[in-house]
Design goal:
Helix 2 runs parallel beside helix 3. The protein is globular and about 30 Å long. The chain is an alpha/beta fold.
């Protein structure tokens, strides 16, 4: 979903922020966002692998904000 959203946004991603209503269970979305020029990510967190996503953001120089609030339930 992140890849599709970034493709749809095109060049508007450069210097942009990425907001998600779901957590990032793997660091691949963080890396994809960085490659597209995203500078910050806001997401609810709550994945057992949050540490991996946070580490990737730190490695890539991205700001990552974890809100602790999910906006949808299954």
């Amino acid at each position: 979903a992140v890849k599709i959203a970034l493709e749809e946004a095109g060049e508007a991603t450069n210097g942009g922020f990425l907001a998600s209503d779901g957590f990032f269970p793997f660091d691949d979305s963080v890396r994809t966002a960085a490659e597209a020029g995203i500078e910050a990510i806001i997401q609810p967190g709550g994945s057992v692998k949050d540490k991996d996503s946070i580490a990737a953001a730190n490695e890539l120089g991205l700001v990552m904000v974890l809100t602790g609030i999910r906006h949808f339930l299954h």
